[in-house]
């Protein structure tokens, strides 16, 4: 891992916070700059007004009394008390200074046609202060300059500059600081998620991301991650269980097969007896292959894409087809059998999978219900869900066992002597899940009702003509 | 009649070869897709048994190529992929039937037999089907035994229709479940047997042996002579 400070600087939270501060600083600078520009123009305009009035007066004087009288007046004004806050200069046509408080024509920046800006002389009241002057040409080639020191303008500019510099600096420092704090916070939350991921990578599947309780986006992420982890843990646990059970449950039939073959070898049976042993051996192998096929089938269903191969299914059709297939078998076993679908029910689903699931449930019901009992197959709509159910009045499943029997390879003690591997209900549950539903095992009082509950909203539409 | 077995697993291939010769067919083996294609296009085989997953050339592609080369011999796919979708894909490529691995040799033989005899019996337009005393008129969906009409449920009729069209051939339970009910799963119980015994009750007469014989370890066969 890189150094913590570097990680903070690299985090996106920090970058965003700093960028926001930068933007704030630039906006602030821009606004202050605008205010500064508008204020100084206003000050300049005020000076220009006063100066132009004075110039008008002086020009009139020259027109009435001549250039020399003007020079005397200019000198008088330049040397007066206020003269230290003003700038005067009168030049004749040859450029010789006639009057004023400036030693020579000032070097400065001309603003517009007649305005001039320069620095105040050392003899003035505020040396170095900006001066704004207006120049007029007099008859005979002479020039007259009248200006005002703008100490207030300078002071204002200095204040604004200081505010701009300080403000920008402050917001950058604050942005940096706040960015660091936010980034540290976000990284802290991320670190908790990362630590959880690390514990899971280390093999501790129980690890979960702690929640802060703020209900913020990190909590949302954490909740989603946690439910994802729950599901993964369940799947992994189920897989471990299945692997254990495969190893355990297949040993028994393989052992039986081995014994049979060994016996055949010892006894050197021949003719019909030998063939019988071989036929039995094939039966054993078929049982084992059947188990593998069922496992493979469940794995395929669980590994399918959501809604893969889904089509409109007419439940009336589905139920009557299966009913027709199973009715003779049930009757042969001395069972009363009925198949009924609520009229006009349609769902989106996989016809083959649903048929197989219901066939498994019917196989079970017919296998476990003693003669004289009832088995019924039905499809109905109840509270926004389609229920495909197979009910019997056989021995049922004890309430505390119902959850367990759905797991692969789990068989009740009473059923151990009957053929089967304990995978039928697992397949039904997998089919239910592939349809966004679930398998419910209920007490039919007496007997068992196995229900495929397929909830409709995320599942498809129901067309109910009734 | 010769059958070409395209299968890369040598024990499975020779097992099929032996099974086929026991049933009276000659059999050649091709151990990969390319060899299979060459042999199939050169030799005159009555039928092909093709593994889905083959080295050098996939089984699906092999069958598609053969069909494009106008080879009409019936093809039976063997595959470890047992999904309904895989089945459909296999049939779409031009194969005629599909058996999942692991398979029973009886299943393969029964299906090959059906494919080989298809030319003789498959004319759905046949006006009257006759097997021994049984007479079926597809147009009116009626069945008579020795001139006496037998009332059959629609599904019983379909079952008998399939058996009569494949008279003298072994048909397995899986074949019946697929052809008559369009289900592609293995039921744990003997549902098919019950339907067969009901059908027997309707079409057989007296205590003599049934027209529908049980073939041990394989399935059923409808025969005229017994």
Describe the structure.
The complex is a heterodimer of chains A (466) and B (226). Chain A is an alpha+beta fold and 466 residues long. Chain A has 9 helices and 13 strands. Chain A has helices at residues 4-10, 12-65, 67-79, 151-201, 217-267, 271-302, 315-332, 351-368, 424-434, and strands spanning 86-91, 97-100, 109-111, 115-119, 130-137, 143-149, 311-314, 336-341, 346-349, 374-382, 385-392, 438-443, 448-455. The two termini of chain A are 66 Å apart. The model of chain A is unreliable at 458-466 (pLDDT under 50). Chain B is α/β, with parallel strands linked by helices. Chain B is 41% helix and 21% strand. Chain B has 9 helices and 12 strands. The radius of gyration of chain B is 19 Å and the shape is elongated. The model of chain B has no long low-confidence stretch (mean pLDDT 85). The A-B interface holds A 279, 282, 286, 289-290, 293, 296-297, 300, 309, 321, 324-326, 328-329, 332, 352, 355-356, 359-360, 363, 366-367, 419-420, 424 and B 82-85, 102, 104, 155, 181, 183-191, 194-195, 198, 217.
Gist of the model:
The complex is a heterodimer of chains A (466) and B (226). With 466 residues, chain A is of the alpha+beta class.
Comma- or semicolon-separated keywords:
heterodimer; A: 466 residues; alpha+beta; six-stranded antiparallel beta sheet; five-stranded mixed beta sheet; disordered C terminus; B: 226 residues; alpha/beta; five-stranded parallel beta sheet; 9 helices; 12 strands; 41% helix; 21% strand
Task: Describe the SSE topology.
The complex is a heterodimer of chains A (about 475) and B (about 230).
Chain A: H1 4-10, H2 12-65, H3 67-79, E1 86-91, E2 97-100, E3 109-111, E4 115-119, E5 130-137, E6 143-149, H4 151-201, H5 217-267, H6 271-302, E7 311-314, H7 315-332, E8 336-341, E9 346-349, H8 351-368, E10 374-382, E11 385-392, H9 424-434, E12 438-443, E13 448-455
Helix pairs in contact in A: 2-3, 2-4, 5-6, 6-9, 7-8, 8-9
Chain B: E1 2-6, H1 10-22, E2 26-30, H2 33-42, E3 47-51, H3 59-68, E4 75-79, H4 84-92, E5 97-100, H5 105-116, H6 118-121, E6 129-131, E7 134-137, E8 142-145, E9 148-150, H7 154-165, E10 171-172, H8 173-181, H9 191-203, E11 212-215, E12 219-222
Parallel strand pairs in B: 1-2, 1-3, 3-4, 4-5
Antiparallel strand pairs in B: 6-7, 7-8, 8-9, 10-12, 11-12
């Amino acid at each position: 891992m890189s150094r913590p400070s570097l990680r903070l600087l690299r985090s996106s939270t920090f970058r965003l916070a700093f960028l926001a501060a930068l933007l704030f600083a630039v906006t602030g600078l821009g606004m202050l700059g605008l205010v500064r520009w508008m204020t100084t123009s206003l000050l300049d305009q005020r000076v220009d007004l006063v100066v132009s009035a004075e110039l008008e007066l002086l020009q009139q004087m020259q027109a009435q009394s001549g250039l020399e009288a003007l020079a005397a007046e200019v000198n008088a004004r330049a040397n007066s008390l206020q003269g230290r806050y003003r700038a005067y200069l009168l030049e004749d046509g040859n450029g010789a200074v006639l009057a004023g408080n400036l030693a020579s024509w000032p070097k400065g920046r001309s603003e517009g046609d007649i305005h001039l800006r320069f620095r105040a002389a050392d003899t003035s009241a505020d040396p170095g202060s900006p001066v704004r002057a207006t120049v007029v040409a007099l008859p005979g080639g002479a020039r007259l300059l009248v200006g005002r020191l703008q100490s207030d303008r300078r002071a204002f500019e200095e204040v604004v500059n200081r505010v701009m510099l300080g403000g920008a600096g402050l917001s950058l420092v604050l942005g940096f600081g706040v960015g660091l704090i936010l980034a540290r916070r976000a990284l802290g939350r991320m670190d908790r998620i990362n630590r959880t991921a690390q514990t899971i990578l280390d093999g501790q599947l129980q690890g979960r991301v702690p929640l802060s309780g703020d209900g913020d986006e990190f909590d949302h992420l954490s909740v989603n991650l946690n439910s994802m982890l729950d599901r993964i843990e369940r799947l992994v646990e189920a897989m471990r269980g299945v692997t254990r059970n495969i190893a355990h449950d297949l040993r028994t039939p393989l052992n039986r097969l081995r014994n049979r073959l060994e016996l055949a070898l010892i006894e050197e049976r021949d003719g019909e007896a030998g063939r019988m042993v071989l036929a039995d051996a094939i039966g054993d192998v078929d049982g084992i292959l059947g188990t593998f096929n069922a496992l493979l089938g469940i794995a395929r269903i669980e590994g399918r894409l959501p809604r893969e191969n889904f089509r409109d299914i007419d439940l009336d059709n589905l139920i009557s087809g299966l009913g027709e297939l199973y009715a003779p078998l049930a009757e042969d076993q001395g069972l009363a059998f009925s198949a009924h679908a609520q009229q006009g029910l349609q769902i989106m689903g996989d016809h083959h999978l649903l048929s197989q699931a219901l066939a498994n449930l019917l196989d079970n019901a017919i296998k476990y219900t003693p003669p004289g009992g009832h088995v019924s197959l039905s499809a109905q709509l109840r509270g926004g869900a389609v229920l495909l159910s197979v009910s019997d009045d056989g021995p049922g499943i004890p309430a505390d066992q119902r959850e367990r029997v759905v797991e692969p390879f789990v068989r009740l003690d009473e059923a151990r002597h009957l053929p089967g591997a304990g995978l039928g209900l697992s397949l039904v549950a997998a089919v239910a899940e592939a349809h966004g539903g679930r398998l419910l095992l209920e007490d039919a009082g007496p007997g068992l009702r196995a229900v495929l509950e397929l909830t409709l909203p995320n599942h498809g539409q129901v067309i109910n003509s009734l | 009649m010769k059958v070409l077995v395209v299968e890369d697993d040598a024990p499975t291939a020779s097992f099929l070869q032996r099974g086929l010769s026991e049933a009276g067919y000659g059999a050649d083996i091709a151990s990969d897709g390319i060899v299979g294609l060459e042999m199939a296009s050169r030799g005159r085989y009555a039928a092909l048994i093709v593994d889905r997953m083959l080295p050098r050339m996939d089984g699906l592609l092999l069958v598609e190529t053969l069909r494009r080369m106008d080879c009409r011999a019936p093809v039976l796919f063997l595959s470890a992929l047992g999904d309904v979708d895989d089945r459909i894909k296999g049939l779409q490529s031009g194969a005629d039937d599909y058996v999942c691995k692991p398979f029973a040799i009886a299943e393969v033989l029964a299906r090959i037999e059906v494919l080989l005899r298809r030319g003789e019996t498959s004319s759905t337009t046949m006006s009257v089907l006759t097997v021994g005393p049984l007479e079926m008129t597809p147009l009116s969906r009626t069945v008579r035994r020795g001139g006496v009409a037998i009332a059959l449920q629609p599904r019983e009729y379909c079952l008998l229709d399939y058996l009569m069209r494949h008279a003298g051939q072994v048909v397995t339970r899986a074949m019946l479940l697929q052809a008559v009910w369009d289900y592609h799963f293995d039921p744990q119980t003997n549902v098919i047997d019950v339907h067969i015994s009901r059908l027997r009750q309707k079409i057989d007469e007296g205590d003599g042996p049934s027209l529908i014989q049980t073939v041990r370890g394989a399935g059923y066969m409808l025969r005229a002579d017994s």
